[in-house]
Amino acid sequence: MDSAVYWYAVASVLLFLKMFAIAAYQGFHRITKMTFKTPEDAALVGREAAKEELPQVQRAARAWLNDLENIPIFLALGVAYVWVDAAPGLAAWLFLTFTGARYMHTLCLLAGLQPWRTVAYIVGVGCTLVMCGLILGALG
């Protein structure tokens, strides 16, 4: 498929799966280490609440928050991109590059890899800026 709608749908599903994986990653570390910060969760397994989250959970939470700052913007711009029919031939490249950059950003954040995390972030932001320009160009 070459339609922008198709690639928008693919990117949306892949981004959902990535965010779901972050949540599962957090749960995996909490459960395997039986370490829970929330008192009711700790009590469920007969433990005291931890004073702070595990380092892996903290990193995953930062990735999640960063996604919440970037993915909704991409999704909104993607809808506008499709609606105004802005450069449909570039949609696959822009949507999948943004998605790949978000995956790489998360992996680099979890692994503590700099400067690659920043590079991935900049690539993703670059995609959204190009999308903005193409949307405005389609309107003019």
TrEMBL record:
Main function: Conjugation of reduced glutathione to a wide number of exogenous and endogenous hydrophobic electrophiles.
PANTHER family: MICROSOMAL GLUTATHIONE S-TRANSFERASE 1
GO molecular function: glutathione transferase activity
Entry EC number(s): 2.5.1.18
Reactions it catalyzes: RX + glutathione = an S-substituted glutathione + a halide anion + H(+)
Entry protein name: Microsomal glutathione S-transferase 1
InterPro entries: MAPEG-like_dom_sf, Membr-assoc_MAPEG, MGST1-like
Enzyme class label: transferase
Protein topology in the membrane: Multi-pass membrane protein
Keywords noted in UniProt: Acetylation, Endoplasmic reticulum, Membrane, Transferase, Transmembrane, Transmembrane helix
Quaternary context: Homotrimer; The trimer binds only one molecule of glutathione.
Residue intervals passing through the bilayer: 6-28, 119-139
Entry GO terms, CC: membrane
Lineage per the UniProt record: Bacteria, Pseudomonadati, Pseudomonadota, Gammaproteobacteria, Oceanospirillales
Superkingdom of origin organism: Bacteria
Compartment(s) where it occurs, according to its Swiss-Prot or TrEMBL record: Endoplasmic reticulum membrane
